[in-house]
Amino acid sequence: MAARLIDGNALAQQIRSEVAARVSALRARGVHPALAVLLVGENPASQVYVRHKVADCEGVGMRSILDRLPETLDEAALLARIAELNADPLVHGILVQLPLPAHIDTDKVIAALSPAKDVDGFHVQNAGALMVGQRGFRPCTPYGCMRMLQSAGIDPRGRHAVVVGRSNIVGKPMAMMLLQAHATVTICHSATPDLAAFTRQADILVAAVGRRNTITAEMVKPGAAVIDVGMNRNEAGKLCGDVDFERVRDVAGWITPVPGGVGPMTRAMLLVNTLEAAESGLAKAEATPG
Ligand code: NAP
After folding, report:
1. pLDDT (tens digit per residue) in 93-118
2. Number of C-beta neighbours around residue 234 at 10 A
């Protein structure tokens, strides 16, 4: 029997509707949630992502501020702009579109973001909060994957979750979130010998590698939930994931498609984080006397 599909488009639409309702409640109380997006240079993929983020904000009634900055912008100027946005009470979330040009130190830029506005969840304070189980912004992609599992009624507790990939934006936070949800977690990477020996044990398998057909049907345990984070192009230029979808769907119990899986959920979770930044700003303002 073919795996059940976890439909990222449908779930993202549902999340956007919920966010839109909460945005209008905030606006009624005088707070207009706003996301600032900083794009440095002309990277074509980044331009598409940024356009989507701005459109997504508009779709739920949020304000977006798009700064298109020249490729030649120096690091100090970018840090100065971030300081300005950090201090602006009308801006709730700040996102710096990555990758940055090579002459700019990405770690330094992320460190300059106010953790309270770091809606991508990349600042070490937010990464640390995830590590120790405290409140903080969760990176949107793994956060979206967790929501997809939840929507399918898959509770990670007691399951063996295998995450392939250990990047700071996907693999590592994904593993932490699964651990926090009481899964037993294995993290695989490029130096893992015999990847299949690990993936075959997975009740929940997350592929975040960036190479197509990394996960084939023989590597999947029958009935497993397979979450495909990868975004690659096949020979025809068509978007595809890391998982051999057509074959793996005959083995897995649940599977996310590409496109229409993790991608739209990542975008939806950015809206959730921005909304929560605005809501917690209001809560703090209300808790401050005078
Ligand atoms: P990344 O920083 O390049 O990390 C890739 C990870 O895969 C690394 O940890 C690497 O191991 C590991 N890896 C590479 N080859 C491997 C192999 N043969 N076997 C096992 N592990 C291997 O990429 P990323 O930013 O995490 O993104 C991963 C993929 O997800 C990309 O396709 C990206 O486009 C996509 N993505 C999608 C979304 C979305 O919204 N759908 C969001 C973010 C990323 P080492 O650490 O040892 O090098």
Report:
1. 999 999 999 999 999 999 999 999 99
2. 10
Nearest CA, atom 5, ligand 1: 209
207 vs 226: CA distance, rounded Å:
8
Domain contains 18 = no
Report the C-alpha gap between 15 and 211 in whole angstroms. 29
The question of whether 194 is a catalytic residue gets the answer no
The count of domains in the chain is 2
Domain that holds residue 186: 140-263
pLDDT tens-digit readout, 233-243? 999 999 999 99
Regarding whether 215 and 158 lie in a shared domain, the answer is: yes
The model carries a pTM of 0.97
DSSP codes joined into one string, 206-250: EE-SS-TTSB-GGGS-TT-EEEE---EE-TTS-EE-SB-HHHHTT
Place of tokens 């498609």: 257
Asked if the structure places residue 134 within a domain, the reply is no
Protein residues whose CB sits closer than 6 Å to any atom of ligand 1: 141, 164-167, 169-171, 188-192, 195, 208-211, 229-232, 262-263, 266
Amino acid at 218: E
Q: Letter for the amino acid at 66?
A: L
* Rounded Cα distance, 142 and 162, in Å: 13
My answer on whether 160 and 258 are in the same domain is yes
Are the CB atoms for 106 and 123 separated by under 8 Å? no
Q: How many CA atoms lie within 13 A of 3 on its CB side?
A: 27
